[in-house]
Amino acid sequence: MDCQRIYDYIGASGVALVAVAAVAAYLCAKNAIYLTWIGWAFRRHIAGLVRDPSRLDAEAGARAGNPLIRIFSEAVREACRGHDDLRAELAFLFHKNFRKVNRAMTLLRLASVISPLLGLLGTVMGISKVFRVIASQAVANPALLANGIWEALTTTIMGLAITVPVLCLYYFFRMQISGFQVELMEYAGRFSAPPKNR
User: Cα angle vertex 84, ends 79, 89, to 5°?
Assistant: First the structure.
């Protein structure tokens, strides 16, 4: 199929849907890889600290490439300096270090909201095109009507086909990020607590 024929088939809103789908696919792949990597590296870092707590170096960890290790190290360092509210400190550090991830998540959510609206826009535009063709003809051809409506509904199908998986992945990533916050709170509290007397 050539580009003009595809454009005639899906229209301007279909082209916009393809662009939204491409951006959403990129963001989903990027977030899946990134969140998996930082979670794996953080858990590996914590496992090393559990085996040997003397390896805890808050200064070096605060400069790490992994945002979870940075947040953990900065929170432990602040707690060692006497910062009382660990939860507030972790929330601030999480917001500061996850700014790019949160921006990508917002764009992913936006893609899931825009897709069905673009699909509906394509359907309305397609149906109005069908009615223009009908108005220009003396006798309406039922096959032409059915074909025009079928083409108009294609964008709605495209919009829903984008929205459903993107929204599922969005909530999956949100759950993963929430799990990171819980893990950070647990481990930061454990490593910043004063050692127990034996």
Answer: 65
The answer to whether the CB of 94 falls within 8 A of the CB of 181 is: yes
* Block residue for tokens 């792949």: 29
Going by C-alpha positions, the residue among 102, 117, 87, 101 that lies closest to residue 181 is 87
CA 193 remoteness from chain centre = 34
Q: 132 to each of 11, 13, 138, 144, how far by Cα in Å?
A: 16, 18, 12, 12
pTM for the full model? 0.79
Token reading at 16: 């916009």
Q: What is the largest CA-CA distance in the chain?
A: 96
- d(CA 35, CA 89) in angstroms, rounded, equals 22
DSSP code, position 62? T
pLDDT, one tens digit per residue, over 79-127 is 666 556 778 888 888 888 899 999 999 999 999 999 999 999 988 888 8
